[in-house]
Specification:
Elements lengths: L1 H11 L7 H18 L10 H4 L7 H14 L8 E5 L7 H7 L5 E6 L2 H12 L5 E5 L27 E6 L8 H14 E11 L1 E2 L1 H8 L9 E3 L3 E3 L9 E4 H10 L2 E3 L19 E7 L2
Parallel strand pairs: 1-2, 1-4, 2-3, 4-5, 6-9
Antiparallel strand pairs: 5-11, 7-8, 8-9, 10-11
Helix pairs in contact: 4-5
């Protein structure tokens, strides 16, 4: 299996973008069948070919860790109205199912049609207070027929609809124009006094020192548009970092108060443990 996986990964990098989703399905079908025979189908757990879209880590454990962070760091309450921006295949929504059994309401959206359909079928069918929508945003790999650019997309919710908004591994893959457009929409749909939990890759003197010493997971030395930095010039949205000072000023400009401290992630010193990305909590004051 190890040689099989390594061979597939080498070939996968060379495949055309439109072919990659089909290649994943072919590769992971026997793995998903093995999981079915082991009883994984009895749990609310996406097939492996979908779980791999959010990385190689333990899907369930990372989801539980993120939920714990939302509760302990963000102060998420089970009766709140919650928006999950870029919900993906439900990595956080699944553990939230037990936590939000009361009067709370969950809304999630993502640009990948087939993962939203899976969430609707397997999560919404079990929890009537969980709703998922497709964001018809263009992406060359995941939604090539998408109608909107991310920078022009308006979240499909009314003003001040949510008590709590969170997005994990979203702004770490968005360039400045798109990131700022999403942030404006978050401010619009978040009620006064509401909180937002965001993950970033943040650059500050300590982070830069780690990178110079070759300790960091990423090497964010390629500047884009004067505001953000990327690890891979050929695939810039693979990993995107922002200067911490820029992000602090951006929050202030948009009536968001950063709740100290920032919880810096292990990506800075090259570790794979959680939290991997940098955690930020902001509060809407106006």
């Amino acid at each position: 299996m190890g040689l099989y996986k390594k061979t597939f990964e080498r070939l996968f990098d060379w495949l055309p973008r439109l072919i990659k989703p089909f290649a994943l399905r072919i590769y992971y079908t026997p793995i998903d069948l093995t999981g079915f025979l082991k009883g994984e189908s009895e749990r609310v757990l996406p097939p492996k070919r979908m779980r791999i879209l959010v990385g190689d880590g333990d899907f369930e454990e990372i989801g539980k860790d993120l939920l714990q962070a939302l509760i302990e760091i963000g102060g998420l309450k089970p009766n709140e109205r919650v928006l999950d921006v870029g919900c993906g295949i439900g990595r956080v929504a699944i553990p939230l199912m037990d936590y939000m059994k009361g009067n709370g309401c969950y809304e999630g959206f993502d640009i990948v049609p087939h993962v939203i359909k899976w969430c609707q079928k397997n999560i919404s069918s079990r929890c009537s207070n969980f709703h998922f929508q497709i964001a018809d945003i263009y992406n060359g790999v995941y939604n090539p027929a998408g109608e909107y650019k991310a920078s022009n997309y308006k979240f499909p919710y009314k003003d001040e609809s949510f008590d709590f908004v969170f997005l994990t591994s979203v702004f770490t893959h968005m360039l400045t124009e798109d990131m700022q457009a999403y942030l404006l929409e978050i401010v619009r749909v978040l009620r006064k006094g509401g909180r937002c939990f965001i993950t970033y890759f943040l650059l500050n003197p300590e982070t830069i020192r780690f990178m110079e010493q070759k300790q960091s997971t990423f090497d964010f030395k390629r500047e884009r548009d004067g505001c953000c930095y990327v690890d891979n010039e050929n695939n810039p949205e693979h990993a995107v970092a922002y200067e911490e000072d820029f992000i602090r000023k951006l929050f202030k400009k948009n009536s968001l108060i950063l709740i100290e401290p920032i919880y810096y992630g292990e990506w800075r010193n090259g570790k794979k443990s959680q939290p991997f990305q940098d955690f930020i909590i902001v509060n809407k004051v106006l």
